[in-house]
Amino acid sequence: MIWAIFAFLAAFLDSTKDFFSKRGLKHVNEYVISFALRFFAFLFLFPLLFIVGIPELGKYFWLAWGYATISVVITTILVLKALKYSDLSKISPIITFSPLFILFISPLLLGEFTPTIGIIGVLLIIIGSYFLNIRELSAGYLAPFRVLFKEKGTQLMLIVAIMWAIGSNVDKVGVLNSSPIFWSVMVNLASALILFPIMLAKSYNGLGQVKGKFWTLLPIGLSLAMMYFFQMKALSIQQVVYVISIKRTSVLISVLFGYFFLKEQGIKERLFAASIMVAGVILILNS
Known about the structure:
Elements lengths: L1 H23 L5 H16 L3 H4 L8 H25 L2 H4 L5 H13 L7 H15 L11 H8 L1 H25 L3 H23 L3 H7 L1 H22 L4 H8 L2 H11 L6 H19 L2
Helix pairs in contact: 1-12, 1-13, 1-14, 2-4, 2-10, 2-11, 2-12, 4-9, 4-10, 6-7, 6-9, 6-13, 7-15, 9-10, 10-12, 13-15, 14-15
């Protein structure tokens, strides 16, 4: 079960990365953070190549790498925009939808099938998303869902959840056609190179902001680098849906981070909703 330990560590580090990102948005815009977190993650991961070496690349590596790079650039910006518009504890549970999408995507891309008990897990994720906005129930039975799809931050995270569901499968293809470290280095390097001109175009004195807020941005990149390391190690061992299902327990950590450190409100219903969604994830895991 070493893969499960890796996946849980990835979950904690994912929440840590989002927490530092949310806090960093008070000082710099989302484009500066997008570039910095990918660039710093690359700097932390690159020295590991001297230890593990460059692997022989499989025939699907470059195709997977091309898709992953584009996907990472888009989702990195979208996640930070979502954090900018909404509470961390509000948007983080939305990512639990990705195991739902993976149930349908993995059989197509990897031939990985999940037994029927996973459907119950899917239903719990949907029920949890309903309770996320239970305060809106007075406006009608469908109001919690309408709020979920109308709020800017949650809309963006739903897009991210779909893209991550595909991207997680592509990550596994990339890892199996190279190695966890080499794949992580290459994806972060390529995405940083693309995000660099975007940052310059969308930010005033972007490089100056990176230098001036170095200690604000550094822990974001470090958290991402460590998350990549543990997630890719887990994916190299276990099915995508199981790894990502455990990783999605990060929503509970994010909700607690939002309440205790960012002073966000509505902790009770958000923690309850996140718990239901995680229960669904666990059912998928044990299916």
